[in-house]
Amino acid sequence: MRIGLDIVEIERIARLGRSRRFIERVFSREEIRYCDGKRLRWQHYAARFAAKEAVWKALGRRGLALKDISIARAPSGRPAVRINGRAAADVQVSLTHCGLYAAAAAVFVERGR
Question: pTM here?
Fold first, then answer.
């Protein structure tokens, strides 16, 4: 089992996000649609950015780009990890955000161990 953790300042992501190029380089179309549909969209972008970083760390970086990792919503409403568009059932993620920060933790459980 490997764990990844990340925390980001929401304002930092909001600053970077003013460039649509950043948004399109890091987030999937589904993530963009989800976050742009929220009243406090920068909190949601920041939480997903932190989750991507946490997943990336838990997986040992494996040559993945942040855009290869996406955070979707399972039918239950829980966040779900997708790698290159495919469900990553062996990776669990938890997201949180408040006024200033967003954070995420990811756990990767290797199969057969």
Answer: 0.94
